[in-house]
UniProtKB/TrEMBL annotation:
Membrane topology term: Single-pass type II membrane protein
UniProt xrefs under InterPro entries: Glyco_tran_10_C, Glyco_trans_10, GT10-like_C_sf
Pathway: Protein modification; protein glycosylation
Function of the protein: Protein O-fucosyltransferase that specifically catalyzes O-fucosylation of serine or threonine residues in EMI domains of target proteins, such as MMRN1, MMRN2 and EMID1. Attaches fucose through an O-glycosidic linkage. O-fucosylation of EMI domain-containing proteins may be required for facilitating protein folding and secretion. May also show alpha-(1,3)-fucosyltransferase activity toward the innermost N-acetyl glucosamine (GlcNAc) residue in biantennary N-glycan acceptors. However, this was tested with a library of synthetic substrates and this activity is unsure in vivo.
Family according to the record: Belongs to the glycosyltransferase 10 family.
Species lineage: Eukaryota, Metazoa, Chordata, Craniata, Vertebrata
One Gene Ontology cellular component annotation held by this UniProt entry: Golgi cisterna membrane
UniProt keyword terms in alphabetical order: Glycosyltransferase, Golgi apparatus, Membrane, Transferase, Transmembrane
Location(s), subcellular: Golgi apparatus, Golgi stack membrane
Ranges for domain Fucosyltransferase C-terminal: 12-53
Gene3D superfamilies the record matches: Glycosyl transferase family 10, C-terminal domain
Name of this protein: Fucosyltransferase
Domain of life: Eukaryota
Length: 153
């Protein structure tokens, strides 16, 4: 989890506490200490990400979100699936066993995303651009259902 968080003071990870009582004590301390709490939201307010691994992954990925210069994440995912299918075809042509990738139920039941209540300083003004991903989500859901139907036929 920590590999993909935006900064060092970013989230309270339950796994970092040996007992629920220790976690509760920390949360109470956080609630009573504004400075300690603000360290957790500073990256949101300033719009600064200090995690170099995350920054590199964002910079080098082949897809974008609300970025017309890049493929959207659905199209990029579809291309990745197609590439893996062709990789397996080539493996089988060489007499090698295909690789298997298998989704878990938790990968398939994402709730519809919502707009965050907080707003970073450099956020887009309220407009249709801030919610353009909703139609993409709904369209992708329909495409997934159609694909499932075709696979099951």
């Amino acid at each position: 989890i920590t590999d993909w968080l935006p900064s060092n003071k970013r989230a309270i990870l339950v796994s970092e506490f040996s007992h629920p009582r220790e976690l509760a004590t920390y949360i109470r301390r956080l609630d009573s200490d504004d400075g300690l709490y603000e360290a957790y939201v500073e990256w949101k307010l300033k719009g600064e990400i200090s995690n170099q691994r995350l920054l590199t992954a964002l910079r080098e990925r082949k897809w974008g979100v609300q970025d017309i210069s890049q493929d959207n994440y659905i199209d990029a995912f579809e291309c990745m699936v197609c590439t893996k299918v062709w990789d397996n075809i080539r493996l089988q042509e060489k007499g090698l066993p295909p690789k298997r990738w298998e989704a878990e139920d938790t990968h398939l039941s994402c709730p519809k995303p919502t707009v965050f209540a907080f707003s970073p300083l450099r956020a887009l003004p309220l407009s249709s651009l801030r919610e353009m991903w909703i139609s993409s989500f709904e369209q992708s859901k329909k495409e997934a259902q159609a694909l499932r139907w075709l696979v099951d036929r």
